[in-house]
Amino acid sequence: xxxxxxxxxxxxxxxxxxxxxxxxxxxxxxxxxxxxxxxxxxxxxxxxxxxxxxxxxxxxxxxxxxxxxxxxxxxxxxxxxxxxxxxxxxxxxxxxxxxxxxxxxxxxxxxxxxxxxxxxxxxxxxxxxxxxxxxxxxxxxxxxxxxxxxxxxxxxxxxxxxxxxxxxxxxxxxxxxxxxxxxxxxxxxxxxxxxxxxxxxxxxxxxxxxxxxxxxxxxxxxxxxxxxxxxxxxxxxxxxxxxxxxxxxxxxxxxxxxxxxxxxxxxxxxxxxxxxxxxxxxxxxxxxxxxxxxxxxxxxxxxxxxxxxxxxxxxxxxxxxxxxxxxxxxxxxxxxxxxxxxxxxxxxxxxxxxxxxxxxxxxxxxxxxxxxxxxxxxxxxxxxxxxxxxxxxxxxxxxxxxxxxxxxxxxxxxxxxxxxxxxxxxxxxxxxxxxxxxxxxxxxxxxxxxxxxxxxxxxxxxxxxxxxxxxxxxxxxxxxxxxxxxxxxxxxxxxxxxxxxxxxxxxxxxxxxxxxxxxxxxxxxxxxxxxxxxxxxxxxxxxxxxxxxxxxxxxxxxxxxxxxxxxxxxxxxxxxxxxxxxxxxxxxxxxx
Length: 592
Description:
alpha+beta, Ferric Hydroxamate Uptake Protein, Chain A, domain 1, 3 domains, six-stranded mixed β-sheet, 12 helices, globular
């Protein structure tokens, strides 16, 4: 099983009729956020941690309990630094107040060891690439039983600062030399100098004076064969393999007589089953995930105890209201109570009343409102969700996610014209359509709306799509979380129990987290293309959110994505159990 990034796409968006319109303008905040919390390492408080605001003369140190207090404005960056620990950076948001920071050791480990023996450098076995199968233009090669690939080099071990593929492999692949076709040879280590086509000769398996320099190698890049090396982003290369056996040459015919250099890029290292940037676990899934368990607010037990004998709806509500006075700062209290009234007491009216109270109580807290909107969407209360997302867009007009969420809510409510209009406002606010983060999510949703609902949405703009792109899939899953500080691991397990992991953590994926906070988004999407092979399932390991409140994760599952028979459903998860792998849901023979 291999993994594939979102394929490269290009888009031209022509605004046919823009018209006059005005929208929200973010008002700069002059007041500082009062930010405090504790800094620990391995659950031990860290004293004398430097806490500073980047570019400002605001700096404090933690006390013996690891406690700190500092003031910072929205979009400013707080640095947490300590000798021997990896520096932590947190971008301040509108609601940032309490931040518990966990620092980890800053260890520079060498991935390979060079041993000097007889003037030759030998790489340690530890760094040899682990690759069981190699995908070529003529099918997969099983490297465990085949002698085809006599040399495999990781992309990270190439000369990634080189100007082209040939220079990237110089000194890493056993090549005889470089040749410029059409120029005169000037023999220097088998090279020629000129301005013709640049080709490479590789050393044969058995080197003799008769085959010296014979034959020019060809290139197999992601299943496409070239005589000259095509332009490839060198940082995107996963592996380069040399095929120089007779069996390998036979597959490519006379063109492969000089050998074949197979290049596999990271963005195409995928089966047409799962598409996103994930890491393959060395081991298969060990059935080590526990059933999903949601920890309820402490007040729920009290409500259950007091309301067991109450059948009168008014008294039930009064019982909850009495307790709510002690939980005015806890959004999860309201969500838990609403869920209790709906699931245990089968009283939808009371459940919605509690959610309405939550909206009033937290009408300025965007994170609490997002959790509320997720809940309304899971309940099928689309109009109420749209109302909440409208409120969030007023609170956070500079956040890309605000526009996408409202557009998506309109889309789910089949208000296609309003959905397209909101996506257009997203673009007019200066946000882009790219192949990462929220931009990729918006691009795919706009593409679906344009290709499937263009007439109903009365779309006048021109939205051009790369025809080589795959527009449909068996499953598309969009994960969203209500706080940008949330950290977790998502594990995708295929029918053969191969495990693929997406880690959303500062330690592993700090660039994406920073990008999300700067642009204002907290979501990601995943595609599964072929469900005929059996059952898939997804697990999650929650790592925390620097606060003492739960994180709410919404998973929207689209079946037959991009097709006429597309359907979707929403699952909402409350996360407050740390470092505990839990099962979320399955695909295929899915039990909802």
